[in-house]
TrEMBL record:
It is an enzyme of class 2 (transferase). The record marks K66, K285 as: Transition state stabilizer. It comes from Janibacter alkaliphilus. HAMAP family: ArgB. Residues 1-25, 323-342 are annotated as: Disordered. Its EC number is 2.7.2.8. Residues 328-342 have a biased composition (Acidic residues). Catalyzes the ATP-dependent phosphorylation of N-acetyl-L-glutamate. Pfam families: AA_kinase. Gene3D superfamilies: Acetylglutamate kinase-like. It is found in: Cytoplasm. This is Acetylglutamate kinase.
């Protein structure tokens, strides 16, 4: 007797069926498949309708998306990212992509046998390394993203911080273990003229920005700037409605690397306090979010770029998936982000 023989509930078991159940007819099978397909279609429709309040709220909204090099290493993820950005555009938002490319720069430096080291989270940049940074960001990573976006229609236009004086930067050093460190050709963005980006947006297209910046103090010299902070400066100058930073973790953790300490929401003051406790990679991201929100961008999000379509989930669902940073006087609930479209 097989283990799954049905029980009568009276201590005895029912006799095993003597003949197999009749095989389902083609019509019954087709009916079952149609019912399942209908259920899937209904779920899709519910998902679309759930996005409606956000689509209404974000109509025309300018969203600056920072796409980090670590979230850009897998072809499927890159394709999903391109789909999401084009989706935002076709849904009536105005996305602007600002990309990094740290791992891609490193790979090229390794191929060329050039050494470079990071100090305080920034790459020490010699003139030779600067040539590679410029070549990889504008000539490789930017081009590739433009190509991926344009697979969905002729929407994307690439430019760098050098075009139409989009960015102007000044050289910076850093302090590591109490010591002043010369980073070479590394700068902070000090001026932003967003008119070239605005022109591309006004044409209904998607600007894709590589973060190379002319040196304001030395004509003809360009500087290597951190892509997170450049994205924040651009978001503030464009008066963006959101800054979305895609990276390779779920969001910001209160107590990194304790996976149970993922933060759903943070105020700018909370983010400033946390700066003391985060490690190298997250410092420029947190600084970028603080910079953008304290200069008038209503919300900044840190989202997992390894999760396909995480950006859409963060923007268009009640639960969200990453960490949202908002002004101190914003009353949005921290834990769930519920209450209003985030
Ligand atoms: N509190 C924190 N929350 C999340 N990540 C953190 C935190 N502190 C440090 N990190 C590190 O920051 C990294 C993200 O920065 P980075 O590797 O520079 O990303 P990207 O290439 O996307 O710019 C994470 O992978 C993680 O190792
Ligand atoms: C000064 C400095 O460190 N610049 C970065 C620029 C690229 C970048 O920021 O890329 P991610 O966003 O992928 O980290 C670098 O040379 O790697």
């Amino acid at each position: 007797m097989s283990d799954d023989t049905p029980s009568t509930g009276l201590g005895a078991t029912a006799p095993a069926p003597t003949s197999p159940a009749p095989a389902p007819t083609d019509a019954t099978l087709r009916g079952a498949i149609d019912a399942a397909a209908l259920r899937v279609a209904r779920t899709k429709a519910t998902t679309l309708v759930e996005a409606l309040p956000w689509l209404e709220q974000f109509r025309d909204a300018l969203v600056v998306i920072k796409y980090g090099g670590n979230a850009m290493t897998n072809p499927e993820l890159k394709a999903a990212f391109a789909q999401d950005v084009v989706f935002l555009r076709y849904a009536g938002l105005r996305p602007v992509v600002v990309h990094g490319g740290g791992p891609q720069i490193q790979a090229m430096l390794d191929r060329l046998g050039l050494e470079s080291e990071f100090r305080g989270g920034l790459r020490v940049t010699t003139p030779e390394v600067m040539e590679v940074v410029r070549m990889v960001l504008t000539g490789q990573v930017g081009r590739e993203l433009v190509g991926l976006l344009n697979q969905h229609g002729p929407v994307a236009v690439g430019l760098s911080g050098e075009d139409a004086a989009l960015f102007g930067a000044r050289r910076r050093g850093t302090v590591v273990d109490g010591e002043e460190v010369d980073l070479g050709l590394v700068g902070d963005v000090e001026t932003v003229d967003p008119s070239a980006v605005q022109d591309i947006l006004d044409a209904g297209r998607i600007p894709v920005v590589s973060t190379i910046a002319p040196d304001l103090d030395h004509d003809g010299q360009v500087l290597n700037v951190n892509a997170d902070t450049a994205a924040a400066a651009l978001a503030a100058a464009l008066r963006a409605k959101k800054l979305v930073v895609l990276t390779d973790v779920e969001g910001i953790y209160a107590d990194w690397p304790d996976r149970g300490s993922l933060l759903r929401g943070l105020t700018v003051s909370g983010a400033r306090d946390l700066l003391e406790r985060v490690d190298t990679g997250m410092i420029p991201k947190l600084e970028a979010c603080i910079h953008a929100v304290s200069r008038g961008v209503p919300q900044a999000h840190v989202v997992d770029g390894r999760e396909p379509h995480s950006m859409l989930l963060e923007l268009f669902t009640k639960e969200g998936v990453g960490t949202m940073i908002r002004p101190d006087d914003d009353e949005t609930e921290d834990e769930t982000g519920e209450g209003s479209p985030s």
